[in-house]
Each structure stands twice: as C-alpha cells, then as structure tokens.
Amino acid sequence: MTAQDREVDGFDDALALVGREPGAGGVPDRATGPVHGPHHSQDQGEGQERDRTRGAAPGPSAAPGHGPGSPPTARHRAEPWDAARALAARSAASVPAARAASVPLDRAVGRALAEPLTALTDLPSFDTSAMDGWAVSGPGPWSVRPVKGSPRKGATGSRGADDLGILAGHGTVAPLPDGTAVRIATGARIPADTTAVVRSEHARTDSRGHLHADREVIPGQDIRPRGQECRTGDRLLPAGSLVTPAVLGLAAAAGYDELLTVPRPRVEVLVLGDELLTEGLPHDGLIRDALGPMLAPWLRTLGADVIATRRIRDDAEALCRAVTGSKADLVLTTGGTAAGPVDHVHPVLHKTGAELLVDGVAVRPGHPMLLARLASGRHLVGLPGNPLAAVSGLLTLAEPLLRTLAGRAPRPPYRAPLRDAVHGHPYDTRLVPFVHHDEGLVPLHFNGPAMLRGIAAADGLAVVPPGGARPGDELEVLDLPWAASVDGGCFT
C-alpha cells in the first residue's frame, strides 16, 4: 500500500496485510494445514468461540437436536455456512405468504413488488420533442409558421418567430405542411408529418421569416417516438423487485397510482444480559450495549420493520415470556446461545416446543448462532453476544430469512479478487471485513469476534474458505447494505 493510499482511507492501522507472514511469501498450501501468522492473536477467541465471555463453546455432538422440544443438551453438528444460509431462506419460504396489499406510491418504497410491474401505457405515450427548438417538415429552408393560440414572447417582426410555439401539455396540433417550421418545447407533442426537430442553437431565422439549419438535419433527430421505452403490457420489472425511489418514478410514468407489494416483515429484538449499559462509560464489570443501537437500523436496511428493541435480564422466565408473547414475524435475540450457566436461549426453545433448524454454523466469527421455528410458526434467530459474531449471524441467517419473508428476489452472489493474503480457519468458513481497492479486496484488521472497528470501516465481508486465501483468489462478497459496490479506489 502506498503512502497515498494510507492518506486517502484514513485507517492506517485498520488496513491489514492479513495472512502475510514476514518472509513467508503468502499463504501455505491449504493441503498442509491452516494458515497462521502474526495477527493470529486477534482471532484467539475463534478456536473456541464463546458467547459473550461467559459461556462454554458449543461443540459437535453425536446426538442431533433438530426436532421440536429437543433437549438442550442434544447438540447436533454445526451446519456448513452456505447450507445454513440456504436453509434459512427455505424455512421462510415455508411460511404462508403475507397478504399482498395495494398501497399508494408514496407508501410503497422499501417494499417488494408482489407481481411484475407491467406498463399500463406506451412510454412515451405519443411522439415528443427531445429538445427545445423547431419542428420542421421536409427539406429546408423552412417558412416559420405561428401556432394558433400560442403565447407570444414579444414582436420581432418575423411572422411566427415571436410566439412560444407548441408547449408541453398542450393538446393535438395540426399537421405540419411540407417546407414549414414551428417552435416546439421539450416534451411537447410532435405535429403529424414532422421530419425532425432542429435544436434552437443549431438554427437561425432571417428577416423574411425563413428558418435555416446550421448543420445537417437527419430525419427523426431529437424526436422521442411513441413507445421508445416500452409498449403497453411490456414487463418492466419482475415480482420481488425492491421498490426504490427510481421504481416509484417508473411506476408513475407507466400509469400506476398504487402498487401491489409484500408487507415488510416485523422483527422484535431482544437484547439479553445483566452486564449491559445503555449509556455512559463501562465500569465495575459492566459494558456498553453495542448491539441494541446497531441492530434495528441494520434490520431496516434488510427490509424489516422493527417493532421493538427490548432489553431482557439474564432471567429464563422473562425471556420465555418475551419470546412466546411476541407478535413479530421474527424474534432476534443477542447472546445466550452457548451453554453457559445463564445462557437461556436453548432451554427456553426446548420449553416452548420450538424446532431447532440450525444449531451452530461452521463459520468464524459467529459459530454459536441458531435458527428456530417457534410453536406459533414464526421464527427466532439467536445471535451470539460478541458484536462481530452477531453481525456474522445477522448476514448468515437473518438476512436470507428476511429477504424471503419480504418477498424480495434473491441477490445473485458475486466474487472479487483478493489483494492480500488472509488467514483461514482450519475447518470453518471465515467472514472477514474488507474494503474495495483498485487491486482487489483488502482485508481489515480488528476482525475478532468482539470487535467492531473493522466492520465500521468496511464495505462488506469476504467469505474466506477453510485454510485461507492467497492474493488473486476470488472470494464471495457480502456487501453491507449501505456501502455501494465500487470498481476500486473507494474506502467508504
């Protein structure tokens, strides 16, 4: 990295030469074992990742625990990362579809289309002028004609040259005789028998009221023909498309007053733990709650409506009441997913007859995440308590589930080359914060389970396979919702 790069991004300590041992020349052959290097201490909690700092690390078990009401001690093996994401999406697909509703355009943004958007009219719906200028018929020079009823801008002595001509929004005008010209405004209806539109700056009138073009006139120039963008009945967007401000504009132009959309799924966030402060500095063994402020806005970018963020103490009965009493489509918990003395998520799921769909994922950070189907048919995603591990769980399980519940089309995965080598876990996938650079993805430091400094500066998470990756390897990319994909040179 050049000194200029460091000045541009401002994260001198955050940009990692991850996985590059001094003199090692990159990543060892994956067949020889896991990659280790000078930054291994950042990830020292990942080998036995714990939920917050108090729970025992979940390990594989000989006994599966998928069924409803499975005992909390019957832990099944961790799901592969890609399989867990696919399972979350399929699980949401089994939920009865939310009732689609027609809503006014100003309420549709952020929802997904429940049906394809088809054009209700031709666009444009009639031939229109693409420029301010003159509508001309036949070869020039042309005799300038006034437009009946057109406002005048002040007499110039040239017949027809001092009126404003055909304006946008005016009705049908008479056909244009051969050898004549009339003024016309951008967006105005083109008279029948018009050959072309000559831009104002490319034409001049003489004292006898004749119009002369300063350059060659090509038939059809600066005319937007009817149906140039679409014809009535054309499919403009497929079902599942996210309604953005641009989609609202297209829908309005295509004749819509309302759109049939899928309601945004409702999410309730339960932040668990006695050790969490909501304000002030950490003290006396208490720490600030980082997830409560972060998750609600993040979930909204994923297409959810967050109906509440509640803080629950380490009390199994309080958690049980909160889970069973929630009316949300998805309950999202933070912490308590491991097997420590006050990790109550598994016992509560067992007590309430929930079905564990995913109980641990082979990913670092975030190994002890889980997904359950509640007795009500709704879902619960349990995130680990460590902040970056929680982000991993959010993107691994909650994002595909919410995308399906919201009726959004799946986002096609994409890959990008890696600029610098990155460590891998011996057996599990790693999700590593990165920034885009001209030369590829640049992994960031501060990527341990409890750290947010790396993800706060990141454009997304790179999916690193077991064993690590070398410079030039193409990795799957999970873009953060607020970070636009770039071709390089941008560091957020």
Total of helices: 8
Tell me the number of strands. Answer: 28
The main sheet comes to:
7 strands, mixed
Which percent range fits the helix content? 10-25%
Helix/strand-derived category reads alpha/beta
Rg calc: 31 Å
Shape: elongated
**Percentage of residues in strands:** 15-25%
What does this structure look like?
This protein has 492 residues and is of the alpha/beta class. The protein is built from eight helices and 28 strands. The strands form seven sheets. Strands 1, 21, 24, 25, 26, 27 and 28 form a seven-stranded mixed sheet that branches. Strand 25 (429-437) and strand 26 (440-443) form a beta hairpin. Helix 2 runs parallel beside helix 7 and helix 5 crosses helix 6 (345-351). It is elongated.
Short description:
This protein is an alpha/beta fold. The chain has helices at residues 3-9, 81-93, 245-253, 291-301, 316-325, 345-351, 387-405, 453-456; strands spanning 79-80, 101-104, 112-113, 117-118, 128-129, 133-136, 142-144, 180-184, 196-199, 203-205, 210-213, 223-224, 235-237, 258-262, 266-272, 276-277, 287-288, 305-312, 330-334, 355-359, 361-364, 370-373, 379-383, 415-417, 429-437, 440-443, 460-464, 474-479.
List the topology elements.
Layout: H1 3-9, E1 79-80, H2 81-93, E2 101-104, E3 112-113, E4 117-118, E5 128-129, E6 133-136, E7 142-144, E8 180-184, E9 196-199, E10 203-205, E11 210-213, E12 223-224, E13 235-237, H3 245-253, E14 258-262, E15 266-272, E16 276-277, E17 287-288, H4 291-301, E18 305-312, H5 316-325, E19 330-334, H6 345-351, E20 355-359, E21 361-364, E22 370-373, E23 379-383, H7 387-405, E24 415-417, E25 429-437, E26 440-443, H8 453-456, E27 460-464, E28 474-479
Helix pairs in contact: 2-7, 5-6
